[in-house]
Structure formats: C-alpha cells, structure tokens
Amino acid sequence: MDGKLPKIIRIMPDYGPCYACDENYCAFELTNYFENHPRIEEIREIEDQLYGLACWIDSGEPDTNPNFPWYELDKKGLELTKLLSKILGDTGIPIVYCFHYNNPNRSRDEEVIVLDDENA
Length: 120
What we know:
Layout: E1 9-11, E2 20-21, H1 30-33, H2 40-58, H3 61-64, H4 70-88, E3 95-98, E4 111-114
Parallel strand pairs: 1-3
Antiparallel strand pairs: 1-2, 3-4
Helix pairs in contact: 2-4
C-alpha cells in the first residue's frame, strides 16, 4: 500500500464520474492508494463497477426518469462497498456507503458503515 492512506473511505457514486472520497470529501481512486495490495485486480474490478454506477448517475437519467431505479443502484453500491471491505481486510480505515442525495427513499445524509465483522 502506497502513500498516506485516507482516514475514511466514503463510497458515494454521485459527483460526476467520481465514486470515492476521503475524510475531506476529496475524490480519489482506490487503485492509487492500494496499487501494491495483493488483491489489486479485484480492487480494479470493484473500481470499474463503481465508475459504472457513477457514470450512470452522471448520464442525467436520474433527472429525466421519474422511475429511476434508486433501490437497485444503492443495492449494487452497498454490495460493492461490502466486497471492497472484505478484500481490503482490517486496515483500520472505516468504509462507508453514502446513499445518493437525490434518492427520494433515503433519509438526510444517510450512510451505511461497513463494520469490521463483515470482513471475516
């Protein structure tokens, strides 16, 4: 693992084609922080899928489709966040999935913290 690691990883596929932010809400790519991780290829696959979710939102469909499938988007995002947590293991970095701010089904600033016991 290279460089200074973030203090928190927020998976939030909603700001342009960005999908992850640190404790200061600065966007970053997982592969930049974990390029020497033994499971880097799996991290790349997750990153690609998270980019896909972010680009889906950035496409404008949520603004034009009143039946946008928010549930499916968040289900997939949370699934990828849990998988990432499992792959990274116990790094001591909290990993959080943040529901999209335009999702009408979420509470204000709703986040799901992926707990360490899910890494087992």
